[in-house]
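Researcher: I'm preparing a figure for a lab meeting and need a structural model of a single chain. I don't have an experimental structure, so a prediction will have to do for now. The sequence is pasted below. Please return the structure as tokens so I can convert it later.
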Amino acid sequence: MILNGFSITVATMLMWIVATSALSSAEKWKQFANIPGSSGWQCNVICPDPQDHGPDGFNAHDWDGDGDLDVLVNYEEGGYSRLFFNPGKGSVRKLWNEYIEFKNHGKCEDSSIGDLDNDGDIDYVANGGHIYFNPGKDKIKNVEEWQKITLFSREQRCPVISDIDGDGLNDLIVGGRTWYKQPNKDKYKPSHWKAFELGKCKWAMSCYVIDMDADGDKDILVQERKVKGTFYYINPGQEKVYTKWQEQIIDKDIKGMFLAVADINGDDQLDLVKAMPGGARLFLRTNQKGAPDYNRIDIKKPPGAKDQSKGVGVLNMGKAVNPEIVIIPEYKGQLWTISLSETGKWTSSLMDIPHASSRGKMDNAYLHDLDGDGDLDIATTEENSGWGVIWFENPGVGKAKK
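Model: Understood. Here is the structure written out token by token.
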């Protein structure tokens, strides 16, 4: 028998089965981690979650400057965050045991990163309102050196860091409805961060700062799952940027989960992909300027795909002409993809990643080259079956599809 490139005797296999059968439910991931499917995809674990603390966000950046991507993760039920340091290419598929922990910032369902004091270093935002300012590469592993401020304590999903008012300083958008202006001085005093309301939004799932109408300023695209569906705020221009922004609805359907933005059909226009209960909804842009017009296409999930689609990402893998769309189901299901053929036909197919049923509630798709081999891997968080912080390793072009 051949497993992971090694010859395994029947006796050895029996010993492995006996050993793993004694594992608790929170340790079942040990049976299935690092074992590839027939096309090469496998699931690797950065940090398991035996106590269901609920990792729920994934932010990759080289914080320590060693050339490898590190990962900052927020824990929803645990109420803390951890910055995991990449152990290097030789050990990247093993557990990442070196980390610092930001403790007790409260229940946290989302997070983000960006330079929020404009000092050139990447900072961290947990739960929308808790900002941790990067002390610099030399002090990065001393958690006490990170300067923390709290703008508000309630949960606000989808923190996004971007310069909203065009003054050269990055601002903070939270909840798909409010933005906080970065002050010119005394940035570590919460009272100096002034809040401005964009409009109404109840439960944002995705938020992007994009020039939707090609008029030269930044609009704000939001995927909302309770009231509005998919919409964007129209930037009113420099003179009115501090007032409420007019809204433009793209899709009123509120059953969608995460939203991805990418050119998915090779026409140099930004399209949208929305994860839906029965599959995915594509919005193919048909105009270059003005309010966007879309050709909407609903794609059904392939046979064998289970549960509602949740996470979504767009990446190049296999031998497809155009980038492929990867969908992560919310509960106990196999990942699947959507591809556009040379003849213009959209098709969906299951990905060959073993032991899908052992993973419970998964989140969005985060695309990063975690092993430094030149292709994008698919990272996510698994909240209630012990897997924790995980990544699906891209086997490379030519191997990803059989």
